Predict the 3D structure of the following.
Amino acid sequence: MARADFSPKEIHYFETPLIDRSAIIPCFSLNKNVLLPSGWRSVPVRALAAEFFAGHELSVAPALPVIFRACHIAQWLLDSVFCGSCGAKNEMSKHEFSRKCPVCGRIEYPRVSPAIIIRIINANDEILLAHDKKFSENIYSLIAGFYEAGERLEDTAEREVFEEVGLRIKNIRYISSQSWPFPNSLMIGFSADYSGGNIRCDGVEIEDARWFKRDNLPNLPAYGSIARSLIEEWRTS
């Protein structure tokens, strides 16, 4: 299927360079309401990630970071059409991958929102898993939350855990990270030990949280997510 099979009003074609500039990712952005041509089907990127990994480690699917980058950039292009300072229409820079306002000169780079995600283990070798209101299918996952200006990432982890489930943690250790373009996150994964407190769900985001053993885990996040990777690392250790 070629670009010509879509009308100009239905499709936006753009090119995203790989981070090392060694190649170009050709991208097609369509409005959600556009009907796909015969023989095409829509596959959610999250579902695609789960199919790629199918129970394996994050490193086994090198194509997925390319797809994630394309999704991230597509969203940024939609969100950065106009200058955030003066409202003029931005232009793509000729010197770097950014947008520049031709009126006031403001430069905008693809937005990245850091967020921590943390695996908490207690003295009984149980993992803390929580059900968020926005989760479907009764899925339980790790505590996560966005970084606030002025914090260390360790501060973010401590604050989010206490705010969401009322627990204190210690021995916070960095494990790994993952680009998560839904819409523009960088997930930074940690592990920590339970230090004190009783589970107290905030009721705003977290509806339920419990300690689980390896042999009685609930429905977990799909493979392809750092949440599942952190859980599986503990489960199989």
About this structure: The chain has a mean pLDDT of 89. The chain has two domains: 3-108, 113-235.
